[in-house]
Amino acid sequence: MSSPTTVPPSPLLPLPHHPYPNLHFTRRSLLFLSSPVVLSLSSPLSSSSATTTPPPPPDTTITDRVFMDFGICPNYFQNRNLGDQLSLCADSEPLGRLVLGLYGNLVPLTVSNFKSMCTGPTNFSYKGTLVQKIFPGQFFVAGRQGRRDKGEVKPPLDLVRNTEAVESRAFLLEHSRPGLVSLCLSENDDDDEVKLDPNYRNVEFLITTGPGPCPQLDSRNIIFGTVLEGMDVVTAIASIPTYRPAERIRQYNDFAQFIGDDRAKTARAVWNKPLKTVYISDCGELKVTKPALSPSLP
Among 145-149, 227-231, 281-285, which is the least confidently predicted range? Predict the structure, then answer.
């Protein structure tokens, strides 16, 4: 005869008596027990909610001022015996003066080279060189490098090589309004054989004309200044008619470029060229007199 088996009590059944008769939970003890959990949960939340300090805006302090006088030479394309003396055009029609403020703290090399091209001798400066292209409602381009007898720029041999073209801080500003001065990188129109010269220095620049922004220029060209005076001159240059090929010519050119015909690039070189000879008749630096100091107190 087998002995009876003792079945252990089920954990789901209530116990016959309290296992810890002297243990009592009060409201204070519950708060005390829960406080470490609250602290452990709140500490990561407080760290994640901390805001990061935004980077400082680009330094657009105007450190230098230069001027550019623009004019129109009516007989330049008909009579090319002016040679490299375009600035001495006898029948020049003045358009006016631009005063440009330069951001020397942001891009010092770009500003230094631009100033050198404004203050250098006539044969090695912007003086007597053409506005090469005008894009209506966007910008105009000047300072194309090449031959002086074609109204192009010839930089001096001692011009410093601009290494800011590979620095990210040089591209922080956006072409968001009219009157911005920018170094041409993506819009550079210099000939390929000129760029292969070891002494090549990019000095081609553009000025936005408005009325709207030019986002296609952002992060590709270096803004280094702004127009302080003479936006009416910018508007006058932007209103000069340009050569615009017909749509059929554009289609032929696109096809020629697609099949690798080098003549396509040569043909496009005249697109958007002004139909009048717009040129920089004079340029230089403006020295700003420091404000007078107030009389000292006795």
Answer: 145-149
pLDDT in tens, 119-145: 998 889 999 999 999 999 999 999 999
139 closest CA partner among 229, 227, 228: 227
pTM assigned to the model: 0.76
